[in-house]
Amino acid sequence: METNEKSANSQFSAGAGFQANGDARFVSQNVRDIGSQFKAKMSRTANSSAPSREGFAFEYLDAMDQQIDLGGRYKVDVPDINGKNSSDILIKSRTSGDVIKEQQLKLNSRPADNAAKSGAYGKQEIRTPKGQTRKPTNYKVKESNISNSEVSKGAKHPNQATSNYQFKAAMAEISNAAATGAITGAVAATLISGLAHFLAVERGEMEIDRAIAAVFLNAVEGATIGAVSSGLFAAIPAFIPALVPILNIISVPLLTVGAFQLVNQVGQILDRHTFAKRNALLEEVHRQDAKFFESFDKQVMAYLQS
Question: What is the mean pLDDT of the chain?
Fold first, then answer.
């Protein structure tokens, strides 16, 4: 790949990756919001009993974990309402805003089994930490990805627990952008390289197997450039959220400029192909003319010498 093609690919992939990464950015933002609620709750309940603090810790840790797992199509909320049988966690559709699942969390499997059996919480899903000595026996009880030890650590060190989930969300955001950039970069490189090399095959300048190999290598290079540029661009808002509005503005012209440069590359390839075909035609005409006049000269010389 030429330098200008690499530059165009990098800009286009970075812009496209950022624009397509809205759901992942939402996940990171909501994890930060839930984490802020968690730290505030732990601060307010600093003098409460350990089981009470662990119960709150389980709610917020499970909410952050579920938000990362569910992705940006859903929003996980911790209502922080202490009413009778009120939901501990709500999962909503981001498009409609409707609540699609209500959850009730229990620290121990026995109370979780009893709650599921009694039906006191209606249609709410009952959840309990994983890895307990006594496993839940009621099929309606779901085990969280959060273990008892994580709950205990989170209750004692809420800042560290929050930072861990924020880092997970940020890495997921960067990985998603890098994957999008890799696909975008590979497609753009394949189109440009494929056009250039297969036109060269048509002109007889290259064998088809060499063209296929060259296109494949350029596609890999394009995917790498796209993944790196898009991942680095996404890393900025992942760790500095305040810059999201600015980068959202920047990404549009970046995408546009990159697309324009790629289209310009296509135009240059087609122009070079037309020029090469015209030159080949002219050379063939000149060759035929030279052959004709050479034959004519030989005939004249033969006539004069006879």
Answer: 88
Q: How far is CA 160 from CA 29, 36, 60, 68, 147, in A?
A: 17, 12, 13, 17, 16
Range 172-186 average pLDDT: 93
Q: Residue 282: pLDDT above 60?
A: no
Q: What is the mean pLDDT of residues 83-97?
A: 90
Is residue 224 within 8 Å of 182, Cβ to Cβ? yes
Query: Could you tell me the pTM of the whole model?
Result: 0.80
Calculate mean pLDDT across residues 16-27: 90
Query: How far is residue 97's CA from residue 74's CA, in Å, rounded to a whole number?
Result: 9
Question: How confident is the model over 49-70, as a mean pLDDT?
Answer: 95
Q: What is the 3-state secondary structure (H, E, C) of the chain?
A: CCHHHHHHHHHHHHHHHHHCCHHHHHHHHHHHHHHHHHHHHHHHCCCCCHHHHHHHHHHHHHHHHHHHHHCCCEEEECCCCCCCCCCCEEEEECCCCCEEEEEEECCCHHHHHHHHHHCCCCCCEEEEEECCCCCCCCCCEEEEEEEHHHHHHHHHCHHHHHHHHHHHHHHHHHHHHHHHHHHHHHHHHHHHHHHHHHHHHHCCCCCHHHHHHHHHHHHHHHHHHHHHHHHHHHHHHHHCHHHHHHHHHHHHHHHHHHHHHHHHHHHHHHHHHHHHHHHHHHHHHHHHHHHHHHHHHHHHHHHHHC
Alpha-carbon Rg for the chain, nearest whole angstrom, is: 32
